[in-house]
């Protein structure tokens, strides 16, 4: 995986292009096609005001490139980050149907996933398993780690292009099924995932969200939801590989953990697992193809304090490298989009 911002010193800088406001320069990392790096041409440029006045320009570039890195604007606080989100998208979205532990910082601004610092987080698109998902996801680096800890971004358009056609056709036709088991002390509890203590509220959410549910012994809960795998982008019309079939499959976890879980649980009893939409297992060789496609498409974005990274969630997945030192990155989600409006059910173009 390439480091997107390596070699950006004086010797490797290419001529910059002025934005239409002539206040911001834009460039791509050496040898990469994302993210688009925007930096102020004049010291003290106020990001929120500039972004609000140039929202259409940002939307256009985001749809074209998939990710924007705003660097050097001195976003010094979570409040400033929240103001930027509102200036470019409106109010941030709540984190519903949770799959990872996060803490609320304030007003729908969350910490990034609480995950051991020595472990990698595999690339994924945010909440693509929800019937309504965020079109945009924002990251703000409050404290940069002392070592590593970049956020790799992954083009879902490239993944789709590089997958074998017969594999894509299979997933388009069959979809995938995401199965969760709550209550064994691994992963989130159903109370945390659904943000309620009431079973009736969980049941209603599941009915509204086309999720099958089953209450098991000792207060455990199993949910199962069939979801599409390919989406058509509402602005560009391009197709994107947009799903959690790879991320939530048990075999994507580190091998020692996979072996341990399989010694304890059947495949449908795992805390998280995925299948084809009809419930049949996804072949190991297909999962290897999928993981390889994600990893080939990664571009690492190292953090500097004050950075803001804006991704089109349909066009760009994200992950996390292991790191050392304190690392604080906060997250916001925005612009709700319904699967019903973007689902692609074939046939694939020739």
TrEMBL record:
InterPro entries: AlphaKG_dependent_hydroxylases, TauD-like_sf, TauD/TfdA-like. GO terms for biological process: antibiotic biosynthetic process. The keyword Lyase does not apply. Its cofactor is Fe(2+). SUPFAM superfamilies: Clavaminate synthase-like. It holds the Pfam family TauD. One of its GO terms (molecular function) is 2-oxoglutarate-dependent dioxygenase activity. Coiled coil: none annotated. Keywords: Antibiotic biosynthesis, Dioxygenase, Oxidoreductase. Residues 44-332 form the TauD/TfdA-like domain. It comes from the Bacteria. PANTHER family: GAMMA-BUTYROBETAINE HYDROXYLASE-RELATED, TAUD_TFDA-LIKE DOMAIN-CONTAINING PROTEIN. This is TauD/TfdA family dioxygenase. It comes from Corallococcus sicarius.
């Amino acid at each position: 995986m390439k480091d997107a911002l390596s070699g950006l010193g004086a010797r490797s800088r290419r001529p910059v292009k002025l934005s239409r406001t002539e206040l911001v320069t834009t460039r791509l990392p050496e040898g990469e096609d994302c993210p688009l790096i925007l930096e102020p041409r004049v010291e003290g440029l106020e990001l929120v005001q500039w972004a609000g006045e140039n929202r259409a320009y940002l939307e256009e570039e985001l749809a074209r490139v998939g990710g924007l890195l705003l660097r050097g604007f001195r976003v010094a606080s979570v409040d400033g980050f929240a103001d930027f989100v509102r200036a470019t998208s409106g109010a941030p979205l709540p984190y519903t149907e949770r799959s990872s532990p996060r803490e609320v910082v304030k007003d729908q601004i969350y910490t990034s996933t609480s995950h051991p610092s020595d472990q990698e987080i595999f690339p994924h698109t945010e909440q693509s398993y929800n019937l309504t998902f965020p079109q945009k996801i924002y990251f703000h680096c409050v404290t940069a780690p002392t070592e590593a800890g970049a956020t790799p971004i992954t083009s879902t358009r490239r993944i789709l292009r590089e997958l074998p056609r017969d594999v894509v056709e299979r997933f388009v036709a069959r979809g995938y099924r995401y199965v969760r088991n709550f209550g064994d002390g691994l992963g989130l509890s159903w109370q945390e995932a659904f943000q309620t203590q009431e079973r009736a509220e969980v049941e209603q959410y599941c009915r509204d969200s086309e999720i099958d549910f089953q209450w098991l012994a000792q207060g455990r809960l199993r949910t199962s939801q069939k979801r599409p795998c390919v989406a058509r982008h509402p602005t560009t019309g391009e197709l994107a590989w947009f799903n959690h079939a790879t991320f939530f499959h048990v075999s994507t976890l580190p091998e020692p953990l996979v072996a341990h879980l399989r010694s304890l649980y059947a495949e449908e009893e795992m805390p998280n697992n995925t299948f084809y939409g009809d419930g049949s297992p996804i072949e190991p060789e297909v999962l290897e193809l999928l993981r390889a496609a994600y990893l080939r498409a990664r571009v690492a974005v190292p953090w500097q304090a004050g950075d803001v990274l804006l991704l089109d969630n349909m066009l760009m997945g994200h992950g996390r490298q292991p790191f050392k030192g304190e690392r604080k990155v906060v997250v916001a989600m925005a612009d709700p989009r319904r699967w019903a409006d973007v689902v692609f059910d074939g046939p694939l173009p020739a």
